[in-house]
Amino acid sequence: MDDRFNLALGSLEETLNRVLFALTLSNLSAEDAPLIFMNSSFKDMTGCTDAQLGQNCRFLQAEFPNYEARAEVRLALRERRRTQVILKNRRMDGSVFRNFLLLEYIGSYRGFPELALGTQFVLSKDEEDDLNAVPVKDGPLAQAQSAALRVRLERRRIASDSAVRLLQSWCVLNELTPEP
Ligand SMILES: Cc1cc2nc3c(=O)[nH]c(=O)nc-3n(C[C@H](O)[C@H](O)[C@H](O)COP(=O)(O)O)c2cc1C
Predict the structure, then answer these.
(1) What is the pLDDT of residues 135-166, one digit of tens each?
(2) What are the C-alpha distances in Å from 164 to residues 58, 135, 151, 158?
(3) pLDDT in tens, 50-105
(4) At CA 118, angle to CA 7 and CA 49, rounded to 5?
């Protein structure tokens, strides 16, 4: 693999691979923000392997336009803030799924490129309909009608926050100072 896509995560890699939800890291310092890490849950969910590292994650969108969601992701990356969107994706075996993507901006630590972290999970059609049912001013995803889905989304949000903190703590514990 190209060295630019080889993130030296050391022992953290093992931990991230044991996490039960999908996790990806993209290098925002490199041209077109290539994927530089995907954990085992992401590989199980999508059928991807390390052979897909070095590509921008949009390859999962195949022929689907995802206009609004992509515009929001581009804006969030430009503004270096978190966001959440639903993207229509295709797995490597060709099957289609609705991907709920939580995107977090990590920033850069010495020795690391500027990173963004994505956590992904599969939404059922009912869940997607639920989220699209109520247009609210904070965005289409701010409110789920079903309590079960609200709980699921909240747990994902906490999981995503924890993954960011885990990564940042690991950098601090390894004395990797944040870059301005
Ligand atoms: C960390 C990270 C993870 C991402 N994960 C996915 C994903 O699982 N599926 C997807 O369709 N897009 C994903 N994206 C979004 C695309 O890579 C891309 O940013 C988006 O399509 C908007 O850019 P574009 O309009 O140039 O395609 C991810 C982006 C980042 C930074």
Answers:
(1) 544 555 556 778 888 888 889 899 999 999 98
(2) 22, 29, 20, 10
(3) 999 999 999 999 999 999 999 999 999 999 999 999 999 999 999 999 999 999 99
(4) 60
DSSP secondary structure of 50-119:
GGGTTS-GGGGGTT---HHHHHHHHHHHHHT--EEEEEEEE-TTS-EEEEEEEEEEEE-BTTS--EEEEE
> Residue 73 C-alpha to ligand 1 middle, in angstroms?
7
Least Cα distance to 92 among 51, 124, 128 occurs for: 51
Report the C-alpha gap between 172 and 175 in whole angstroms. Answer: 5
Does residue 132 register a pLDDT over 80? no
Regarding the beta carbon of 123 and ligand 1, being less than 6 Å apart is answered no
**Beta carbons within 8 Å of 75's beta carbon, 6+ residues apart:** 83
Among 23, 43, 45, 57, name the best residue to mutate to test ligand 1's pocket (greatest count of ligand atoms within 8 A of Cβ).
Answer: 57
Complete domains list, the chain, with CATH? 3-173 (3.30.450.20)
Nearest to 98 by CA among 175, 49, 170, 46: 46
Cβ atoms of 130 and 98 within 8 Å: the answer is no
